[in-house]
Amino acid sequence: MGRRPQRLCAWTAAVAGVGLPPLLMLLVGSGMELGVPELWSWRRLPRLEPDPVGTALILGGAALALVAALGRGFRRRKWQRAGWLLLGGLLFDCGILLSGRAGAAENALGFLDPFTTGYLTQAARHCADGSLRTYCREELYQVGEGEYPHHLQVHPPGNLLWAALIYRWCPPFGNRLFPGAAAELEMLAAAEALPASASSPEIRVAALNLLALTLLGISAGRALLLALLLAQPRRRPEVGALLVTLGAGGVVLFAGHFDPFYFPVTAAAVTAFGLALSRRSDRGRWWLLALCGLLLGVGTSLSLGFGAPAVLAGAVLLARPGRWRELSALAVGGLVAVAGFQLAGYPLLPAWLVCWRNHRAFFALRGLDYWPWVGWNAVDALLFGGVLVTVGAVALLTASGRARNALLGAGGMWLFLIFSGSARGEFGRLLILYVPVLLAGGAWLWSGSAGFRPSRWLTRVVIVALVFGALQVWYLRQTLKLVIID
Question: Could you say which of 88, 128, 150, 286 is the most buried, measured as most Cβ atoms within 10 Å of its Cβ?
Fold first, then answer.
């Protein structure tokens, strides 16, 4: 692509990143249905008074990230500044959690509610009587004739196993991190306002531990993506580092669901893949690709959606000279993950097949036809991807040289996921697992890589777009009921 079309694409994406957040906030604030009436749509909250502590953390975290990224001497002290960026991102996430209708307690209730996810309540039940493996193999995916598949029955067993691990073995560090939420859950339990399955102290501890691990997982994913960006020589990483820090803000909106745990898994796979492509030695590259395959294989135990980054990784390798050896290393890593679950007594292949069948049955029984959801998936992508989509994915068109195929593939896969019909409603939550791919591509591009050099004014517009995207995340937290509990 020539320099002029590159510049035009980049400016279009940057201006969209500035102009779309105010329009989207007006759309949400207008009261218009965000979905298909009588089938599914995002529900709204009554008007809230912003929590002062949460607001202070949001403003402080965003300001710290801006100062760390844009202050002088980034390239000389990039690893030190990366630490400040991570702290800024963590403060921002904590502020978003605290600024909701019930603070962090609302998100903890999402883990405890048997209908929002159901993983933790089922894990606690079957850990108590030692029947978890039997339940996963014999009962989990049984759906009666004409019945709606439950949330657990459209996902492989990995989420349930993760919930069981936290329920059994984690110390109560979540109570110390969220003392107010712990006290509120205690009060609700005393008033018998919690479901019977969530009334034990152990399960409340596990819910708060999961909430704390959500924050740590998002920060770990950011750290890995920053490491991938800053490990590359001859880059201008300021804007890319800021995109990684603030562009992932929408992920924390869905704390209380299990989807944010997918973020660090994909981020680790993307980091291993990116480092593999930059290695000169074949052996080091093969080991890293095997690690990437292993991580994506583990991811498929959590969600069928991990097939998308796996297919993208394979497609990128197919365009390289040593593709068959590299593809073999990637495949071996994935097969090791599948074999590990098989040996542990949780076979993945039959689980994938029955989950896909239940997934399609759910769409058919609910009447979720394909066409209305294509448009709403795109709206969700803009609402919850925000700057990530407009400044990251769209601007991938500006790439040139060897990186272009990989970057265009990342954007193309995102569009495929929007239009494929694999998600119909809650697209912004269900595709959290793919967010690190777009963050890595956008950060690589806007750091002056892939043959593209953004001008000073274009860089300033992108920074404003990132700030607007952070404001959009705060507004969605104040306005929409993102953890579907009553």
Answer: 88
